[in-house]
Amino acid sequence: MGSFYITTAIDYVNGSPHLGHAYEKVLTDVIARFRRQLGDRVHFLTGVDEHGQKVQASARQRGIPPQQFADEVSAEFRALLPKLSISNDDFIRTTEERHKKVVRQVLQQLFDKGEIYKAEYQGFYSTRQEQFLQEKDRNPDGTWPEIFGEVTEITESNYFFKLRQYQEWLVGFLAAHEDFIFPRYRQKQVLEFLKEPLNDLCISRPRERLEWGIPLPFDEAYVTYVWFDALLNYYSAVADQPGVWPAAWHVIGKDILVPPHAVYWPIMLHAAGLPLPGGIIAHGWWMQSGSKMSKSTGNALNPLDLVAEFGADAFRYFLIREMNVGQDSDFTREQFLVRYNSELANNLGNLVNRTLNMTTRFAAGVVPAAGPAEDLERALQDLWTKTRDEFIPLCEGFQFHTALERAMFFLTETNAYIEKRAPWKLGKSAAPSDQALLRTALATMAEALRLAVALIQHVTPGTTEKINAVLGYTPGPVWREELVWGTKLTGATVAPALVLFPRPAPPAGEKKG
Ligand code: MSP
Question: All domains of the chain, ordered by start, with CATH?
Fold first, then answer.
């Protein structure tokens, strides 16, 4: 049994969670559940990033202390998790003592080793991005790009982490670990970035400018730069749990890959003498009308609205089915409804209805034993084997969208099988051969349904559970064994009906009366 530690980025608590944040949790949860199914010992961490300029500024705007502000917004992020059926084992806040303790320890250790030095720094500073800018960041006309907000020239003494001296090492490491970053083309982008010389990293902020952070253990007049603080959450959360670090995979958005996760983080760990994580998965962005969904753009969708309307599983299914991990996707309600109606309500929903309805009607609600398979049954069983054998490696390679497409195809073909077998016709005939075929048909559709929902249970855990319940079935502990076509349902008593994916109500304006 392997150990598998998986983390999400920790969200800034300067505003409410939106669909982009929800997606990352869902994607990570799908991976975590999948690994558990494979038998790994999974530890799943998520949490919030509470320090730094953004949070301090938002709290000031509200006129309340930053801790109180962080408490409120963190509670909102935390409350979202069960609503999305997220199976995290831990939730970390960077204001917790267990985290601050580790950050201070690592800082002190690096300082003692001579990896951190103090120097005078003069430069252009972006408050919005909390970073000093370089000449190459300017627009061709000399102005600063919009994303940096207000930029001012300042001079101050600060502490620097010797990033530059590890550049060669990092290039060598990435060259030797081609799969460190998923998708692979992102790893190439990191190597491209590393062709330019790195600057040492300014890891302190004078307290008079930024109060809301972890004080440096060796100079209390400064607090730690928010990224140095935040990245360490992955380690601080499990530092006292033997065997968890470093079997880690970090799931993050592509905007925070270079430089924080792909450059600062490996170098910080290496300099501190800590082992490196297994890898980084950089997903793309949810967009709306062509721009990144975000708090500042004001185009952010509240995931809770969709969950309230369609349920957690439909929401999870859509996000995972629609997004090719690594690339961007545009979110539209129309596309959501297309998948909801055609794939969940029609394809899966119909199979559930037909199975329950016909088993009730033709077999008094008890799944019969199948007779010998004929061509139609054999074809469906062969398709099952192919689907399952492709599905698992696709999920191992984070190709969940394609995996779900295959599962949907299997459901489509199962519905097509029912059309061809036409149990309703067989039910009208008293001939023993037709009755035998009817039993085979009922057993086949129930078995296909059981298998399909076992296959996608990491994406739709609640739906799988509900369907198993109406099939009168309790799955065994070994997932792979659940995926073998067999007779597990023979003799099971099914419920007469289940409403799974109700048709959404028409928009308010179209309602009658
Ligand atoms: N606090 C830092 C991360 C520190 S990790 C040690 C941060 N926070 S964030 O709230 O801005 O973003 C959190 C995560 O949400 C990031 O991985 C980011 O990429 C992701 N998303 C934010 N908006 C997004 C979309 N529109 N689409 C998909 N994910 C995006 O960065």
Answer: 3-310 (3.40.50.620), 332-482 (1.10.730.10)
